[in-house]
Amino acid sequence: MLSILLIVQPLWQNKGRLLLSVGAITIGVALGYAVQLINRAAIDEMARASATLSGEAELTVRGPRAGFDEAVYARLAARPEVLDASPAVEVEARLAGRDETLRVIGLDVFRAAAVQPALVARESEEDEDPLDMLRPDAVFLSPAAAQWLRVARDDRIRLQAGLRVMELRVAGTLSEGAGRGRFAWMDIGAAQRLFDRIGAITRIDLDLVAGADAKRFVEQVASELPPGVFIERPETALQANARLTRAYRVNLNVLALVALFTGGLLVFSTQALSIVRRRSQLALLRVIGVTRRALALLLVAEGATVGLLGSALGVLLGIALAGAVLRLYGADLGAEYFRGWEATLSLDAPFLFLFLGFGIAAAVLGTLAPALDAARMPLARALRAGQELRAFERLKPAWPGLLFLVAGAALAAQRPVGELPVAGYSAIALLLIGTLLLMPRVTAAVAQVLPTGRSAWLRLSIAHLRQAAGQLSVGLAALVASVSLAVAMAIMVASFRDSLDAWLQRILPADLYVRAAPSGDTAYLDEAAQRRIAAVPGIRKVEFLRSQHILLDPARPRVTLIARDLEDPLRQIPLVRGAAQAARGLPAAWVSEHVCDVFGWQPGDEVWLPIAGQRHRFAVAGVWRDYARQNGAVLIERSVYVRLTGDRRANDAGVWLHPEVAPAAVAERIRAAVPAGEQLEIAQPAEIRAWSLRIFDRTFAVTYALEAVAIAIGLAGLSASFAANAFARRQEFGMLRHIGAGRREIAAMLACEGLIVSTIAALVGLVLGWVVSLLLVHVVNRQSFHWSMEMHYPIGGIAAFLFCVLVLAVATAVVGGRYALSGEAVRAVREDW
To answer: Judging by beta carbons within 10 Å of its beta carbon (0-12, 13-18, 19+), is residue 150 exposed, middle or buried?
Structure first.
């Protein structure tokens, strides 16, 4: 009971410090747990949708997005090991007049009823015409799709195929067992005809007979499938889709934990304040028999209590925050990774306790150093007045910090683990910790070389810095961490944004760009439409582009195959590396950095690409930068693609105009020349760049919010440090008041000290932030997303940010030293015994 009182009473007596510490841990845990819940909701919904689509199937056959020969279905269904086989055609069909798509699945309802019963079960079969399941204009919507489109039974929806617009009748709504994803299904034959997939299917779900060896069956069948078509377990496709967003989700988790890290540093500062203020009480506990070990455990228990309170509140706040974000922005925080998924919040007990543990661990680690310092202080020194300023002298040795810096530098060069930059993150953490451990030595060294000048207040400030560098460095820890991470993120985001802008200017040289649809895979420009566009008056030249999605590895997302009209590849393609040797007569392929890193394809290599059900050999002619397709892309000449496939359709067109021709006028002529031209999306390069950068800024909005939280916590830590410093110097300020110093002079001295130490923190944070930005750009970002970028420094923004930090730090120093300006400082002189 006495131990509990010794833990609770100091916390209750310092409610402001308690609220500050608990609030920091709460914010850190809430952000981390909210991001985890949002990510978990998206993955769970993907898993439910995959389970609904695959149903009771043990194996799934899938290949390119455009589909593969339906004869594969006939051969597999005839095998004795197969009990049931359900073919399907999946498309992302654009909603006419909208920039959104609806996932449409064509099914053989009789086969699907055996393999995927939940997918074809309707909400209510009363008054339904059974023949609707076979009618070519009938479609059944999932509950989420019906709600999203605001349609009911017998209403019409309009979908685009090519440039044609088709009206389909809503014949019914699926049951809730179909999941919360937005999709529709219709008869497979109708889907093949409407979406130009005659003779092609995109997947086959297989249910094997009892006792069949699935592994052996896969080995036997794999060699019989066309190139680019794979047979796998349904969970493999789910893992491939999850892999596409994994790096993004992990980065968000790491950014959220930054706030928790700075919260731990704030606990460190506030616990240091508590120990300074309770110096005499702790010493008396030692006098009456409390051992050093027991005293250290007592102080650590205080930190654990703070962590428990903050973690519990953080978990509750995280649940509320995740629910609000899912309703307002979706599971991708505005990044549009999970379009079409209606994710719902569900609690995950293991992660709940994990983040509870994170919060408690952060608070305990933040308390550990002050607790050990208080327990190790000799009793005679602890009882003597004026010893507060010598706190944390054990932090002055440089070797621990240097050891962390060396370890961080060594990890920076390591390869990713599981395609995640684990070593890069660890290197950043070690460099940060090493720098914080060196802060007492850095502060003392700077104080020794500072000129004192003629001002008495400046001389007193510098003398104090030289004497109490260890204690002042405690408050600098959170500020250095916040400034360095903010600077690093600012440089990384600016580098990414400027590199994206330069890349967009490089790949958008035309005057106008025409797209059959802004999204989806059912719209295209046929040969007649292409000829009509090329013949429009005012057009000087047109280059067409065709894109498909091919499957190179079933464990990974599909790669985009781009077939483009090329006249001068070195000028038209944003190459980062060219071919090391001649192509030896093979057609050329240019691979994106993602494909280069993930599949190991290098310039000069010979590779096989599955195109139109056949394997074709290409020579890698170079590696190019591509920010638009995170799953990777391979670019070939369109003439080669047409020769191999016979497909002369196009998705996009780049249009060059004659001089002095108005782009807006030509855009209207194109719409008028092409049937259903109102479905075309026509934009100028500046519009595309502006739209792309808006998406970029929206994606990184959460990053800016997390940075702001970290900076606020850092300033709070600095405030706590200055308060501790001022309390420890009550006798000094009281003596100054006795000899005639006014509150204004003491406030000026505090402001001077605040400016000096915050300048040290800002400069150290600036250098550390620059180093961390190099790791973010060249290690973390490259290993996470396989994108390279050029370094760009937002000097003006960083300078304004540092100026604001210095102003706020000086104000914090004055406010934090409010006790030094009160009447208590005069009476404190009597405490000097």
So the answer is: exposed
